[in-house]
TrEMBL record, chain A:
Entry's Gene Ontology cellular component terms: cytosol
Record-linked SUPFAM superfamilies: Ferritin-like
NCBIfam families given in the database record: PA_CoA_Oxy1 (TIGR02156)
InterPro entries for the chain: Aromatic_CoA_ox/epox, Ferritin-like, Ferritin-like_SF, PaaA, PaaA_PaaC
Region described as Disordered: spans on this chain: 1-24
Pfam family, one: PaaA_PaaC
Classification via Gene3D superfamilies: 1.20.1260.10
One BP annotation, GO: phenylacetate catabolic process
Encoding gene, per UniProt annotation: paaA
Taxonomic classification: Bacteria, Pseudomonadati, Pseudomonadota, Alphaproteobacteria, Hyphomicrobiales
Stretches with biased composition (Basic and acidic residues): 12-24
Coiled coil: none
Organism of derivation: Roseibium aquae
Protein name: Phenylacetate-CoA oxygenase subunit PaaA
Source superkingdom: Bacteria
TrEMBL record, chain B:
Pfam family, one: PaaB
Protein name: Phenylacetate-CoA oxygenase subunit PaaB
Amino acid sequence: MYAQMVKSTGEGVKDLKEMSPEERAFQERIDRGEKIEPKEWMPEGYRKTLIRQIGQHAHSEIVGQLPEGNWITRAPTLERKAILLAKVQDEAGHGLYLYCAAETLGVSRDELLEKLHSGNMKYSSIFNYPTLTWADIGAIGWLVDGAAIMNQVPLQRTSYGPYSRAMIRICKEESFHQRQGYDIMMKMAKGTPEQKEMAQDALNRFWYPSLMMFGPSDKDSVHSAQSMAWKIKINTNDELRQKFVDQTVPQAEYLGLTIPDENLAWNEEKGGYDFSEPDWSEFYEVLKGNGPCNKERLGARVKAWEDGAWFREGLMAHAEKQSAAKLAAE
Amino acid sequence: MKKEWPLWEVFIRGQHGLNHRHVGSLHAPDAEMAIKNARDVYTRRNEGVSIWVVESKHITASSPSERGPLFEPSNDKVYRHPTFFDIPDEVGHM
C-alpha cells in the first residue's frame, strides 16, 4: 500500500492474560471499537509502529507528487492541466494531514523528513516507476489511486483517532483522483489506434507494480498480526489485492484493454479472479533503492528541502522580528 | 541552529451559523501565513467561510486521566434531561 511492510514489535500478539493491566485495558478499548487519542496511554510498540506507518504513508503522498508533476507542463489541454494541478495539490494536502497525525505521537516534522531523506524511512515502491507518456497519468489515477483507496477506506476505522480522521478527509478527496485517471483512460482508449496503444502500454507497465503496492502475502506475518490486533491494519495484503483485481478487471474490459496476465480467469468457486503474482524479487529490489527512479525521486526531495532552507529560515527570522517589534510597541 | 516552524491548530467555520470546528494542524512561521496555509490545506473544496488559527502551545487540554472526576458527576443527574419527566399525553406537546 502507501505503507508497505511496516514492522511492528516483531513479537507477535500477546494473549490478554499475559498483558500488563495497562496493556490489557488498552487492548480492551480497541476491541470495543474505542478510538485512542494522542495524550492517552499506549504501548510503546503501538506508538512506534504507527509513526512508521503514518510516516511512510505521508512520505508516499509527498513523493507521489513527483511522477505526476512530470506531466503538468505537458498536459494535452488546459483543462487537463488544471485538473492535474488540483490533484497534485491534493497529494501535498494528504501528506500534510498525515504528517500532522504522526506528529501527535511525539515525532517532529523535521525528524520525519530527515528519515525520509537519509533513506531510513521508505515511501511506496510504486513511485519509483517513470511516467513515460500522458496515458501513464491516466493509469496512475485509475490503478495506483484505485489501489490506495482499497487500503484507505478500511483505515478510516483505524483505532488511532488522528489517523482515522486524516483517512476520512483523504478518502473524500481520493475518489476524484481515481475518476480523473479513468476519464483519461476512457479518452485514450476511444481515441486513435495510437492513443489506444498508449493506454494499453501504460496498463502493461503499471499493472504489476500496482499489485505490488499491497505488499507480499502477510498471512503468516507476526508484524501484521499485531497491527491487526491493534486495528492499525484492517485487512491482509492478499484480501486487498484480490478485491482490487476483482474491481479492476471489469473496468479494463469496459475500456477494451487487456490485463497483461494470461493466467487471469474468473474462479466461480471463490467468487473472484485467479491472477498471477507480481515478480517479488523486483519489488525487493525497488525497496532496496534499485528501482528505475529511486535516485531521481529521493534526489528531487532532498534538493527541494535543501534549496528551500534559506526561505524557511528567512520567514522564521521575519516572524521573530515582527513579533519582537510588536512586543516593543506594546 | 535550524528551527522548525511552530505548529498551529486550525478551526474552520463550515457554513454561516455554525461554530468553528477543529480540523487539524499545520506548520507556519506566523499567524498570517498559518491562515494562508490553512486556506490551502483545509479548504480546497469550499469547506469554510472563516478560519481561526492558534499556536498549539497556547492550548490547554484536560488530561485523559482526569476524565472520571471531570465528567462522571453529570452521569447521575438524569433529571437534567427532559425525557426524565413523564408528561401525560392529554397535556399535549410540551
